[in-house]
Structure formats: structure tokens, C-alpha cells
């Protein structure tokens, strides 16, 4: 066999080398295409919500950990009438109550604490509070006793009342001690409100079925009221401690008198009167400080102011004084608060609050987006100097929730209520001075 000549051998070598280069280029091109497809799939999976590969998942976890370490952005609200924002709770605030002497405010939250605030600090930069721990449960409702030496809470998991005694320390603070036993469990439906009569003679609890219970201070049920509302949305004790009222699915507010004998012994609960005039379910109602006025708000889109200083035993019905429009009430549940002198009506729907002048029925002020979530409670203090909405606010993820209670200096209606209050006090002072003159020789 003849060997190929040298030029032919060199040509063959060159041909083989060229084929090798072409093959290498093809392999490299295929590898690059595969890398691009892999990257495209990873990006597509991330965009479509599919789980990425392990390396990307690890990076995402590190990013989430870094975000969790950063402080979440809180819901902010500013207004010329805002006096203070109280922020010591670490959970959702569910209820609050001013003490009868106007010195303290109690707030409860699902962080298993009740906070007691001094109202004299509301206009200060720092707002101090005293903490009472709710062991093995958390409170959803709180009410001060009339003498401000105790408060009661409704337990979320225990579905019953617990009493806390307040003992003053030498340094001016308080220690809080729960009584050895909670009240017996009697309600079969979720609770809507609790209250203590200012006379200290009884406690009221109301549930969302049709049940209102009257208790003595030892935890014994004195009377059971069937409201016949189909369901209760709210119930309360009047400031004068004579009456218990409730509202619900029916278009009226029903009022009962809790009767005691001259020696303080319980006698009976009797129907007193009704507020009739709404055409749909009543969301909420409130008493004025002297119990001579009541206000109500209904799903029919109206609020009403009533004169309840009547002789109901002589079949006298309450007088309707004013009707105002509040369209939000026709679509969402609302809360209501009436100032102590019944001159200002505060209505809360969602996370916003609206102030009405009850003499003219006109809206005077609105506070939009007060909280990040719906307002859960609304009230004036006993002097009318502050009124207080409580709301829940979500910050960060669904597991990190902060609650804030915010107070407004009551200029409301701005420039009017303060002057009318001043005129009323001046008139009372003049009457008192005239009475003192008549007592002289």
C-alpha cells in the first residue's frame, strides 16, 4: 500500500482540524443556548409565582430576613385637632374606658395587657401608662368601677368577666390583682358590651343573640332580659344607672329600668320606653352625661337625637329632636358617641370619623383615614375635653400588628362647642350665685 504524499497528508490534517473547530463551536453554541433557556425559565417561574431554584430561593429567604429586621412603616395621621397618639400596646386595641373622675383611661388589647393612662399626660410629649397583665387570656372589653378602685374585663377565650382590683403604691402608681375566681360562664353567644352602673349596684353584660344579663357584684345573675331584637348589636347602662338599653336587627332602641328598693335590694327589671322612628336596623346608640338625651344611628342612613327626659310611667314617649343624614350607615356598621352636653355627635364608619352639630344637624368636621383599619371603639371623656377613637392598624406582614389610640382636643364643633359650653357654665354659675344670695339674711 502506497503512503500518501506529504502535501496530501498535510491537507488531510488541516481538514480534520477544521472539522474539530466546527464541532467545538457547535457544542459551545448549544451550551450557551441551554444556559439562556435555564435563565429564562427561572425568570418566568419567578414572574409567574412558581418556586425558583434553590439558589434563588436562598437569596429570597435572605432578603425576607433582612426586610423583617427593618422597622415596618406605620400608619400616620396628622390633624390640627390631634392631641396625642398612645402607642404602648403591641397588639390590636379592642376597647377603652374613661374613669368616672376623668383622671384615667383604660385600654385593652390582644397583647394580654390592660393599660391605664393618666389623662393629664395627654398633652405632654411622653405618655406613661401602667400595665396590668391578663394571665392565660386577653381582654376584649374593659370598664372602670365607679370608685376607680377596680376594673372589669371580658375574657376573649374564657367568655366571662374577670375583676381586677387597683391598689395604690407609695410612689403614686398602682398594682393590679385579679380576684381569685372569674364570673360563671352564662352567655352562649359572643359578647357585644359590658358595663357597671355608676351607683355600683349592678353589672350588665349583653351578647349577640338576644340576651342581656344583670349581675350583682358577686357574680350572681339578678335578671335575664330577652330583647327580642333577633340579634343584639349593642347595649349599655345609662349614666344615671336607672336604665339599660339595647339595639339590634329591629328599627328601634329598647330601654328597661333596673329597679332597687330603698335599702338597695334588687327588685325587678321593667320595660321603660322605646326610641321609634328608624326604618331599618339600629347600629348604635349613646346617652348624654345626664341621661336626658339619647342619639342613635341606623342602617336607614340617618342619625337621630332624642329627648328622653319623660315620665314613661304616664305613657309619655321620648321626643324626636333632630334627624340628620349619614349615608355611610346604610352600607357599613357604624359607631356613635355623644358629647356630655349632647351638643356634638361623633360618628365612625370604617377608619374615618365625622362630627355633627346636633342643634343644626350639620356636619362640622371630618377626619379621614384616622387608622390603618376599622375603628373599634369611640367615646368622649366625661368633661368633653377629649374624645377618643380606638382603631387597629396593620404594619408590615400579617403577623405584625400595632394598635394606636388617638385623642383629639375637642374644639368641636370647632369654635362653637367650646363657646356654648362656656355659656352654659356661666349660666350655671350665675344661677348658683343667685341661689347663694337668696340664702343670706
UniProtKB/TrEMBL annotation:
Cellular component terms (Gene Ontology): endoplasmic reticulum
Which portions of the chain have biased composition (kind: Basic residues)? 57-69
Q: Where are the WD repeats?
A: 86-118, 184-218, 275-307
| Keywords annotated in UniProt | Repeat, Signal, WD repeat
Start-end of Low complexity biased regions: 416-441
GO terms for MF: phosphoprotein binding; protein kinase binding; translation initiation factor binding
From which residue to which does the signal peptide run?
Answer: 1-30
Q: What is the name listed in the Swiss-Prot or TrEMBL entry for this protein?
A: Transducin beta like 2
Organism, by scientific name, is Bos mutus grunniens
Amino acid at each position: 500500500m502506497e503512503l500518501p504524499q506529504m502535501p496530501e497528508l498535510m491537507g488531510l490534517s488541516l481538514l480534520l482540524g477544521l472539522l474539530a473547530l466546527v464541532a467545538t463551536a457547535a457544542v459551545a453554541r448549544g451550551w450557551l443556548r441551554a444556559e439562556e433557556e435555564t435563565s429564562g425559565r427561572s425568570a418566568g417561574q419567578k414572574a409567574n409565582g412558581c418556586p425558583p431554584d434553590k439558589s434563588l430561593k436562598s437569596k429570597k429567604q435572605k432578603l425576607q430576613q433582612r426586610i423583617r429586621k427593618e422597622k415596618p412603616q406605620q400608619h400616620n395621621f396628622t390633624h390640627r385637632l390631634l392631641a396625642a397618639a398612645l402607642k404602648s400596646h403591641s397588639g390590636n386595641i379592642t376597647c377603652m374606658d374613661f374613669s368616672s373622675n376623668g383622671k384615667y383611661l383604660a385600654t385593652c388589647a390582644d397583647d394580654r395587657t390592660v393599660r391605664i393612662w393618666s389623662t393629664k399626660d395627654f398633652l405632654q410629649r411622653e405618655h406613661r401608662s401602667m400595665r396590668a397583665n391578663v394571665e392565660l387570656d386577653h381582654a376584649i372589653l374593659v370598664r372602670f368601677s365607679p370608685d376607680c378602685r377596680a376594673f372589669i374585663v371580658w375574657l376573649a377565650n374564657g367568655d366571662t368577666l374577670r375583676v381586677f382590683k387597683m391598689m395604690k403604691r407609695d410612689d403614686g402608681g398602682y398594682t393590679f390583682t385579679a380576684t381569685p375566681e372569674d364570673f360563671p360562664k352564662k352567655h352562649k353567644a359572643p359578647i357585644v358590651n359590658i358595663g357597671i352602673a355608676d351607683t355600683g349596684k349592678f353589672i350588665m353584660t349583653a351578647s349577640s343573640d338576644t340576651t342581656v344579663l344583670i349581675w350583682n357584684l358577686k357574680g350572681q345573675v339578678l335578671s335575664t332580659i330577652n330583647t327580642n331584637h333577633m340579634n343584639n348589636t349593642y347595649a349599655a347602662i345609662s349614666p344615671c344607672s336607672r336604665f339599660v338599653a339595647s339595639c339590634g336587627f329591629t328599627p328601634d332602641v329598647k330601654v328597661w329600668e333596673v329597679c332597687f328598693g330603698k335599702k338597695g335590694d334588687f327588685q325587678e327589671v321593667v320595660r321603660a320606653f322605646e326610641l321609634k322612628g328608624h326604618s331599618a336596623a339600629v347600629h348604635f346608640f349613646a346617652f348624654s352625661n345626664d341621661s336626658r338625651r339619647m342619639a342613635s344611628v341606623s342602617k336607614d342612613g340617618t342619625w337621630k337625637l332624642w329627648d328622653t327626659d319623660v315620665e314613661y310611667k304616664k305613657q309619655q314617649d321620648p321626643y324626636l329632636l333632630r334627624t340628620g343624614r349619614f349615608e355611610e350607615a346604610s352600607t357599613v356598621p357604624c359607631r356613635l358617641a355623644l358629647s356630655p352636653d349632647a351638643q356634638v355627635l361623633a360618628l365612625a364608619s370604617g377608619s374615618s370619623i365625622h362630627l355633627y352639630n346636633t342643634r343644626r344637624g350639620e356636619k362640622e368636621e371630618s377626619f379621614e383615614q384616622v387608622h390603618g383599619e376599622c375603628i373599634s371603639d369611640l367615646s368622649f371623656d366625661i368633661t368633653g375635653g377629649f374624645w377618643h377613637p380606638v382603631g387597629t392598624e396593620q404594619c408590615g406582614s400579617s403577623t405584625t400588628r400595632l394598635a394606636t389610640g388617638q385623642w383629639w382636643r375637642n374644639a368641636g364643633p370647632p369654635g362653637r362647642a367650646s363657646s356654648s359650653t362656656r355659656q352654659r357654665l356661666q349660666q350655671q354659675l350665675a344661677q348658683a350665685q343667685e341661689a347663694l344670695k337668696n340664702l343670706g339674711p
